[in-house]
Amino acid sequence: MSQMKTGSAYFWGMIFQCTEGIDRRMKVPAILLVLLGLVSMDAVGQTEEGDWYITWGYNRSMYTTSDVRIWGTGPGGAFDLTLEDVEANDMPERFQAKVYFHPGLFTIPQYNARFGKKISKKWWFSAGWDHMKYKLTKQTVNVSGFASASDMGIVSPTDPVLDYVDEPIYWGPGFNLEHSDGMNFVRFSFEREWSIWEARQANIALSGFSAAG
Fold this sequence. Notes:
Layout: E1 2-4, E2 10-18, E3 23-27, E4 30-31, E5 35-37, E6 40-47, E7 50-61, E8 66-74, E9 77-86, E10 88-89, H1 97-100, E11 111-118, E12 123-131, E13 134-136, E14 139-148, E15 161-171, E16 178-179, E17 184-198, E18 204-212
Antiparallel strand pairs: 1-8, 2-4, 2-18, 3-6, 4-5, 5-7, 6-7, 7-11, 8-9, 9-14, 10-13, 11-12, 12-17, 13-16, 14-15, 17-18
């Protein structure tokens, strides 16, 4: 098993929105310190209850350094290790039409889905699902805890269990840690919209859009 320290984040965006009918708008979301979102298409509709939108898009992620704790039982016995200030990358899926346009595979890449509902003139409430991926890079890290020598790739007939206290090890061949299927977040956000520019002769407007959640 593994455990990571994480924190809250904010995202911002710009919206191009028509003022009538079934609208489409472009949004560029970015979660600070956590992910940078790619452009996504939003379908916006009007009902008697008010405006709403649905978004779907794919993201690239960036991570700050983290402390990662891993524990369990390996071939050589129990282990409990904390890796300090480790670096990690996301795991983007290279573009392939057979993946991104396949009804059974298009959720494999890192994606963001969101539904929003307008609750007042300037405010929205939204709920979304963020599918992200996390993989430790090859690096030298400081480790604390214990593990069997054989699981660490060390031959030590006199000391089968190794104790670590802020000791450096190389996280490379033979070691792997990734969250590639279950690193998902449900996010609820309050969002504010304000008018930046509106065309006089056409039903086109440019609005600013910010959110926290």
